[in-house]
Each structure stands twice: as C-alpha cells, then as structure tokens.
Amino acid sequence: MKKRISLAICTILLMSLLAACGSSKAPTESTAPVATSDGKAAATVAPADDKPVTISFMHFKSDATDGIQKIVDQFHKENPNITVEVQPVKFDDYQTLLKTKMASGDVIDVFTVNSGSQTKLLVDGGYLEDLTGQAFLKEHFDASVLADQATEGKNYIMPLNSGPIAVFYNKKIFKDLGIEIPRTFDALMAAAKKIKDSGKTPFALGWKDTWPLDMWDTRDLPSNTALIANMPDFFEKLETGKSKFADNPAVKVTLDHAKQYFEYGNKDQLGVDYNSAVDLFAKEEAAMMYVGTWPLADIQKKNPDLYNTGMGYFPYPFSNDVNKNKLEFNPDASLAISSKSTHKEAALKFLNYMGTKEAGDLWVDNVKTLSFNKGAKTNLAPAVDDLKPYIDGGQIYNSQVYLAKTSIAWNTQFTQDLQNFFFNKMTADELIKDMDNWVAKNHK
After folding, report:
1. pLDDT tens, residue by residue, 401-429
2. Residue 301 burial (10 A CB sphere; 0-12, 13-18, 19+)
3. Which of 63, 108, 284, 305 falls 20 to 30 Å from 119 in CA-CA distance?
4. How many of the other CB atoms lie within 10 Å of CB of 421?
C-alpha cells in the first residue's frame, strides 16, 4: 500500500500537491557557498562550532505541540549545541502575532508559513531568507514540490507537510442507522438528518475558533465556483476588480450549504472551540467531523478503540455531481527562516534535519499528517486507509490552487458574515452585497 500511495502522491504533484516517493541519505554538509539562481552566494549548512546557540521556532500547529516537541528533542540529541525554543501558537492568533513580531523587530529565527499568497506577502516585505540553491532542498524534496512552493522562481520556504481534508465518521452510528457513505451533498445532509432524528449529533463543530469554519468555506466555495460554476479564475479576477460575488452563482450554493451544515451541528457551535469539538467526536457524542488528519493523535489517546477500528474517513461531497466530488488534498505548513535572524547557520541546520526521512517519519507518527520528505512513511492511521481508492485512482484535487493568485483576504470577512447569516441577522443577498462592498473599499 505504501508504494502505491507514494506513486499516487507523485501524481498529486501535477495538481500542486505532494510527492512522497523515493529514499534519501543524510546530506554531506559543506562550508562552501551555494550559488543561487541569480548567481549570488546563498548561506550554507555548515557544522556549528562548539559554542551553544539557541534559536526560536514559532509554529501554528498548536494542536500537535507534544508531537512536534518530540521531533525537536530528537534534533537536539543529534545537535547538542543547538537548543530550539519552541513557541506553539493557536492558528487563529498566529498571523496577527507573526506580523506584530516582525513589525516590532522581535525576530523569530524559524517559523511556519502557508505557501502561496501569504509567502509572497512576506517575501515582498523582505522578511524571508532566500533558500534557493540549498543542497538539502534538492536532497530531501522532489523538484516539483519545490517548484510548486516557489515565489517568482525562488525558494523562500521549505515544504513540510500535507494531507487530505475530509469527513471522519463513527462506523457504529452509521451501521446502526443503516447509513451508507454519502457521495453527494444532499446525501450527506440526508445522513445528518437521520442521525439527528435518532437523537444524536451529526457534526462536531468547534467554531469558537474561527479557523475551522474558515477551513470549510474556503473549500466549499472555491470547489463549487471552479468545478461546478465553471469559474476557475473568479478569485484571480476578484483581485483585479473584474469579478464580483454577485456574479458568482456558487456563493448562494455555499450559503445554502452553510445553513444546513450549521443546522446539523452540535449545540452552541460558535461557543465550542476546536479541541472541544474533537472531544465530542472522540467521546462518540457526534457522528461526523470535517477536518484534516490533525486530531488523529488526540483521538488515539482519548479513545483507542475508536481510533483503531471504530472510525472511517470519506471525501467531503461539496456538490451533487458524483463525478466532481473528489478527495481534497492540500499542502499545510512550510518552514521559513527570518532574513533578520542572527543564527542563520543553526537555523539552516534545523531545516536540514526537518527535511530528512527520519524527521518525516517522526512527523507522520507524532503529528499524524503526511510529510513532503522523500521516502517518509505514509501509513497515518487505520481510518486514513479508507482514502486509498481515491489516492490510487487519482480522484483527488486541491481547491486552494484557485485562491493562490489573490492576496485579498476575502475569507476573513466572509466567515464573519456567515456568523450573522446563521442567526438571520443578514440575508444571502445582504451578505453578497456586503462582500462586494468590502472588496471595493479595501482593494481599490
């Protein structure tokens, strides 16, 4: 299975996804400078001297704090002169804190970023160290992955992890109610109604943290926009003022989906945070949870039986077209070094380690998401094996590619408006008008 999944993931690269095939050996470090694409000398990974050094590492994977610490601890064992001070931050707070630190001159040596528009903004601001030409990038990662995460042809970030975003479900609840895996959105809602009518909670929703709702709407809307409404360049045109939310029929589809999704969630969705939603699913109080593989380690700890045999995983059916409802597969976090860091040698050594197969395997085991590192294992958890037919059959896609060419943070305002929409404080037409007004006002 590992071989087939790895080969399939190589195919995903053609769709801006990850490759996890081949094998690697630890690179031979050199103190000689490496030429970058523009002919300039890049910083190199050189052995640190005997003087102890401490570098800071801030990341937005706070739900996997313990797992990431294990990887950092292993790095320290192999590099005793380098101490990594880990600073986990909740995803909702991360971007604001990162911008604040950069603006104030509070340097973070290594930090996580998302590839695409976020990276470009940081590159344009001069905040990221140019990693182009670093030997460990070529050693540890497929060329297509590096090209996919490049900014204007240069590598400022190192790929880290990726994975599916789909729906975990409780097998016993589905079996007891005679529910088959839904392949369309209407079938998903019919299953949710059946679960609710039985007295159980269909979806575990933790929207006190805004990112889970944001994660959903930034996939449902671009999927229906590009693949159903046949407007793949909508968000790119939004950037230039050539398109409006009022012109996109997929917006009302997403709003309808959101209303139904909200209706079949647990009580007080906007007062329950992500970790509490994971608890609802782990305690088998909710039948489904739309999410990446991130909560697997937590579920394994809280309910081993559910983790081992009691849960499955199926693609989120964003439409009623079974031929379009493929498996969502997205890049997640990448690593960057601050251009202002005074410990670049140690930071590069840390990135070098994080790119190895050893670190990739530790990432898979402890963080429960797939790694971009060549040769890293792919067996995440029993439930993820359910996605094997989609991966092997190439039935996968990345909705985020449709958002990559815009720097407009429309999703923040959209998610805020959705909350008013849920409580009938805003109609669909009012929401759409508000979005177009917001874009016009903030992006002239």
Report:
1. 888 778 788 999 999 999 999 999 999 99
2. exposed
3. 63
4. 19
